[in-house]
Amino acid sequence: MSAGEAAPARTGLGVVPGLTVTAKAGLVLLLVLAMLHPDLGNMRDKAAGLRAVGYPLISFTIPVLWWALWRDRPFPWLADLLVTVTCFTDVLGNRLDLYDSVVWFDDWMHFMNTGLLTAAAVLLTMRRTSTLGAVLERSLAFGVTAALAWELAEYFAFLSTSVERNGAYADTLGDLSLGTLGAVLAGVAVHALWRRGHLLAEEPLRPSSPLRESLAA
């Protein structure tokens, strides 16, 4: 390298791109198998069709947004992985029958996946100099909304006609509480990592419009 050449940027991504692509491929494969063999995927009467449509849309949302809004910047691999993992682990959990065989697995999924989605939202929309209070505000706004949206989708997709609907109220309150806790912990974790100089490779949306400037505040 000559003296006039700039040193290549260090992204610190490591294996993240490979894991992201693998998770997306695994998600598509599991969804195809679930559609062809619902009993094998343990998703009969669990809105397999809606998952087959919704999960690919969710897992490819960030690539579409990156292409449309900020493809002049490095691709946000970590945020994309966090979003994809939420879809992949749900389908994998059903495939392995963990929801029915492990009593706490559903609770863990609500806690973990809401946290992962919230972390992705914070990484994509906030400056690395944001205060902890601002990060927690964004985390709660996004995380609680995401948890509520999932509960509504779950109810109308299959719970309203399931024998489990009699205990749905208590279960919903528990899921919302776990999702909120996951969102808060995700915000605290991301902020703490920022303060320690980590997770700095991925940048938020460029504030080139009032909407983007508001998101990146």
Q: Shape from CA axes?
A: globular
What is the domain tally? 2
Structural class: mainly alpha
Task: Give the total of beta strands.
Answer: 0
Helix percentage: 55-70%
Name the average pLDDT.
82
H/E order of the elements?
HHHHHHHHH
The first-to-last residue Cα distance is 38 Å
The major pleated sheet works out as: none
Radius of gyration: 19 Å
Unreliable segments of 5+ consecutive residues: 1-11, 207-212
Task: Please give the count of helices.
Answer: 9
Explain how this protein is built.
67% of the residues lie in helices and 0% in strands. It folds into two domains: 88 residues; 114 residues, no CATH class. The chain contains nine helices and no strands. By secondary structure, the protein is mainly α.
Set down the secondary structure blueprint.
Layout: H1 16-36, H2 48-59, H3 61-69, H4 77-95, H5 98-101, H6 105-125, H7 132-157, H8 168-195, H9 210-215
Helix pairs in contact: 1-2, 1-4, 2-4, 4-6, 6-7, 6-8, 7-8
Q: Tags for this entry?
A:
single chain; 217 residues; mainly alpha; 2 domains; 0% strand; globular; disordered N terminus
